[in-house]
Amino acid sequence: MIDTMSKPSLDAGIVRLNTPIDEIITPTPGSRNRVIVKSSQKPEENCEVDAVIVTIPLGCLKREVINFQPKLPKRMLEGIDSLSYGTLEKVRLPP
């Protein structure tokens, strides 16, 4: 269902998947209200867009693989630093 729903946007180039990104520059007051997305691996993918949805692993966020300009707010960076991941096991105890 997701493939069917997303196909028109993907075919039209409105949505791009699996695009390596190095830098995201968000609008500042007084600038054009567009987000600039840059890729050193695929410079042909550099563009200005209305919005960006970033889905990267937590480890990449912690290592700041993507350069956000301006920097992410301090409380967001603190939240990212406080998160962790690992093995999770669930146990159900009988009543």
Describe this structure in words.
With 95 residues, this protein is an alpha+beta fold. 25% of the residues lie in helices and 14% in strands. The protein is built from three helices and four strands, in the order H-E-E-E-H-E-H. It has helices spanning 2-11, 58-62, 74-82; strands spanning 23-25, 35-38, 47-49, 67-69. A four-stranded mixed β-sheet has the order 3-2-1-4, with no helix packed on it. Strand 2 and strand 3 form a beta hairpin.
**Number of extended strands:** 4
Shape: extended
Give the strand line-up of the largest sheet. 3-2-1-4
Distance between the termini: 39 Å
Percentage of β-strand residues: 5-15%
Order of helices and strands: HEEEHEH
Quick tags:
3 helices; four-stranded mixed beta sheet; alpha+beta; 4 strands; single chain; 95 residues
SSE layout:
Elements: H1 2-11, E1 23-25, E2 35-38, E3 47-49, H2 58-62, E4 67-69, H3 74-82
